[in-house]
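Late entry, written up from scratch paper. The run itself happened at the end of the previous shift, but nothing got recorded in the book at the time, so transcribing now.
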Amino acid sequence: MKNNELIEIKNLTYKNIFHELNLVLPKDKFISISGTNMSGKTTLIKLLSGLIKTEDSVFYKNIKIEEINKSHYFNEIGIIIPVEKQLFINDTVENELFSILGNIRIEQDEKILQYQKIIKLLDIEGILSQNPNELGKYNRVKLLLASALLSSPRTLFLDNICSDISKNETKDIINILEKINKDEKITIIMSTNNLNEVLTTDYLYILKNGKIEIEGNPIDVLKQDNRLNKIGLEIPFMVDLSVKLNDYSLLDDIILDMDRMVDSIWK
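Output as recorded:
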């Protein structure tokens, strides 16, 4: 494993989902994993995060996950796999977060600083007094992120966390994740059904039937519209439009901003 590699999968076979899967994930990057339902995305996130046990197939920092002290590993990572009826145990968001902080082994003044930092980053001051079980889906995602970030993880595993929120809310969450990745050097490994979420990530894997069907720079992958359509994935509108205009020699590249596209066409 090279110095810039964080996780490696070697010949992973798991049930009827994966067969001799090989994968290397670099550290400090924002990695996206996409595919249709039942392609293995959630299972892969669980395998990588240690929620599902494997035998000599998944390596974290060149060590088999099975050989890593579990408490140490789970201190290094954060995992968000939303469940439909997930219940929080405290009566306010603030109490929920302080309950989590109470289990983190750092000095009290560090806890307060970390709490304030996360609250500001996620812009959740306005919901601190609310009952976490009564939050809307968007603020629930923010609370889950805050809960995961309080322990200062070095890697975040996220499974389709934006699936039930609006386009603008999703854009805000992705912007937050980008800031976390760049400013805090936290590796982010995110699965999603929605290819609009992967546009600004560093690297994209497309799963099909438990195998890596396509991989690479997200824009380069998304240019392969025919292959993605056959897989059953919907191409982001601006990418699809750019590809079609490129076919007619009206554009030279993928443009994600409509105003820029119009200016480029009519210049």
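The first helix runs from residue 41 to 48.
(Scratch paper discarded after transcription.)
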